[in-house]
Amino acid sequence: MGYNFPRGLSSFYIKLYQVVDDPSSDAIISWSEESNNSFIIWNVGEFCTTILPKYREFGINFSRFFSKLRPHGFQRVRGRPGLMEFGHEDFVRDSPERLKNMAVESLSAKRRAKRAAKAKAKKARVQVECLLQHLRI
Questions:
Q1: Distance separating alpha carbons of residues 31 and 101, to the nearest angstrom
Q2: pLDDT, the chain, mean
Q3: pTM, whole model, 2 decimals?
């Protein structure tokens, strides 16, 4: 539990890793027993009343927490009905040093999304300018 996390890492990754790794919260959230790179929220109600209020990084409700997982690279693990299981290849039990890979991946995804948004805006601007040219007599 006394891990040295990589420098410059988002507090979201650090706090989530600490919560998942904390044996005192195993009845609420814990590492999956079938995988070393996923976690299960066993009790969503308790998670919302016990865990979320302590960590502003997770959001104010489960919906916000859930929506923060995808941009941070987590995928919902399917196949076990009724379980809220999420995984990431670099979110690994006993390997917090791999979290730095998640941060790099997340940053790259943000850069790609920003570039795509700029390209879309430029295309829309060109279309508007073209339409305005046709309107002028």
A1: 19
A2: 85
A3: 0.72
